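Q: What would this chain look like folded?
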Amino acid sequence: MKAITTFFETYLNVPESKVRYLTRPTAIDRFLEKTFIKLLPESVTPNQITRFRLLSIPVIAICLVLEWYAVGTVLFLFSAFSDAIDGALARTKKQVTVWGTFYDPIADKLLIGMVATIVITKYVSPYLALFIIILEILLVASAYYRYKGRVVPAKTMGKSKMVLQCVGVILLLFYILFPVAWLFAVATWALYISVVFSLLSLLVFRSI
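A: My prediction, written as structure tokens:
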């Protein structure tokens, strides 16, 4: 913990109070700690989970391109859920690292960007997919510019955006497997609302 605090203060000029905010466990983190995290072996680290998410991205992409939607949906569910798990594990077990701080949001952006490119383009709108991807690129670029080429952990607004994106994509994948109209409607609304949150993250709250 001292190392990550020193990193933020020295290289990013982030005060200690802000570091505590960024690394403080949330209510969801505590819930996951008492449920799913208990099922993990003690040897599992947040960085290992992030690496799993990075490695899963090309596999999910291949499944979606080949229209193996059942397999792709299951893998996406695991990969998206791992985002919540690695963050909660890092914050509750005080295992926040510089590597995880950098690669966790990158993994999120790659995952959503890949699915947006393949699935949202095909089933919803190529313009919506392009807008989501552009906003994610702008969010990362903005964070790099503000924090001297490095990324800091996302908090409330950025995570809310990610949750909306994941919900939208998951419901869209479910719609592909089970073509029920309300699934498509809710998925579309979630994705459009996530765009609003992305704009708020970029222009107001400045959270990736």
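Confidence is low (pLDDT under 50) at residues 1-7.
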